[in-house]
Amino acid sequence: MSAPSGAPGSTTHGAVAPVATIVLAKAPVPGRVKTRLCPPATAEQAATLAAAALLDTLDAVRATPGAHPVVSFTGERSDAVLADELHTVLDAVDVVEQRGDSLGERIAAAHADTAALHPGLPTLQVGMDTPQLSAALLEQCVHTLLTPGNDAVLGLATDGGWWILGLRDPHRAAVLADVPMSREDTGARTLDALRAAGLQVGVVAELTDVDTAAEAVEVAALIPGSRFAASVDACASALTAGSPA
Questions:
Q1: Do the strands 123-126 and 162-167 form a parallel or antiparallel pair, or are they unpaired?
Q2: Domain annotation for the chain: domains and CATH numbers
Q3: 8 A C-beta contact, residue 165 and residue 190
Q4: Which of 103, 105, 207, 230 could form an SS bridge with 181, CB 3.0 to 4.6 Å?
């Protein structure tokens, strides 16, 4: 079913098209997440930023019409910063354990496991590094994915990676198992792998992944009132230490 122009994520009859929306996530445990923020941030501050970003992301996913949220998770929830709030949200959605050695393998497995939970649904996958994404933006990505002729959707990140991947057939994520991740050319390599597999790829808006202190401050400014912005504000003096005046 395709979505007509101006009605993101809807069918030709106006109903919302269901999509299984995956969040690939790691427990926000101090010393295990956002380590590139340390210094200038402490391990606890970095984990708090990661937790806020994850919770904001889950809010956006859960608010997206037609979305069936699935969290592909790794790590100990009980050791996480904001563990109680995280428990509450994760208990309200489907959760699958990450499996695979490389990140590419874990991504492929997340799509396959989600397909087993929601047979026949396309998948849309994000991470926990783009808290600025919104339900409206996710709807636009669904619209692009379901545009006639498209088999996949990819949103590149400013650091050379990517922030969103959508597939009409979730099992086609297997082509990413051998794609090197967390590199400056990961986005380009991913796009090449999808196209080499014969997929027509719709490219959507580029976003900034939060990996550095400067990126955290930049993204927080885009989403005032969010958990992430509040968390950045709480450790602003650390994050801006040494920044140019």
A1: antiparallel
A2: 19-239 (3.90.550.10)
A3: yes
A4: 103
